[in-house]
Amino acid sequence: MTKAPRILGIGHYVPEKVLTNADLEKFVDTSDEWITSRTGIKERRVAAEGEAVSDMALVASRRALESAGMTADDLTHIILCTLTPDFFCPPAACILEEKLGVRGKAAFDLNAACSGFVNGIETGRAFLSLHEDAKVLVVAAESLTSRTNWKDRTTCVLFGDGAGAVILGNAPLEGAKHDAAIQDVELKSDGAFGHLLTVGGGSAAPAKLGEIVDERHFIQMNGPEVFKVAVRSMESVCREVLERNSLTADDIDFFIPHQANYRILDAVARKLGLPAEKVCVTVDRYGNSSASSIIIALSEAVHDGRIKPGCRVLLGVFGGGFTWGSAILQF
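Predicted structure:
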């Protein structure tokens, strides 16, 4: 059998705590109608007190390993895609490795903001091309509510927490519950737009001992400008990867876009000619969970039986940086 990069297992996790729009009305100057009409979001999940990104990643990773019929010992590489790691150092991937009970793996964090998961898939494909027998864990996990400014009504209603994971390998595994070939991936970026969506606290604006943390250390976004670039960029990169593979919208069974805002994902789907029944939507229940949003939606659709063997899935992502990308999966 010809070896090619593929997903061997998949899993996800969302925290138990639900924060509804009605809950937000109690401490934010907003309303359910305002949030729903502009974003499509009705509720989001919030990590428990003390629940770090590595904790959420651990649950998702274990579920992906179980789906693949593997143990953590079988892994060779761990890639944790996140913009909200446990600490600046050590990498959250190394903390995850320890929590998985293994040592000696290649482990590192990858930050491409909301596009992180697809960047992680492409990075995993690169490792698989170099190491034929590699087994790569790609996990995306975010605790965006830890970097949410609850006094900013334009952004605090958008974000939620969660994690999703896949196991990548070069050949199908006997006993694996889920399997999908990674047909193609395309990644792009443009740093000229970086200032439109930021989360500070790095070396360009370091915190000083005793200094009060201000709004620069939390999510700041120019929503209208981000919206315009997001729709244009995701549509363009999805068209590019479809055309390169001689595919059209009719060849796609499901479209899973980054779950940033219902208006964005709906606009992209319409421009691509994809009907609503082909679009996987979780933003109404989970909000925007950044890098983890697309893998949570993918995992949910696989585990609830919507995505079956034979289905072709188109992924489309967009995030701060700006970064964006697309991938085609063949189940």
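Summary: Residues 33 and 305 are 32 Å apart (CA to CA).
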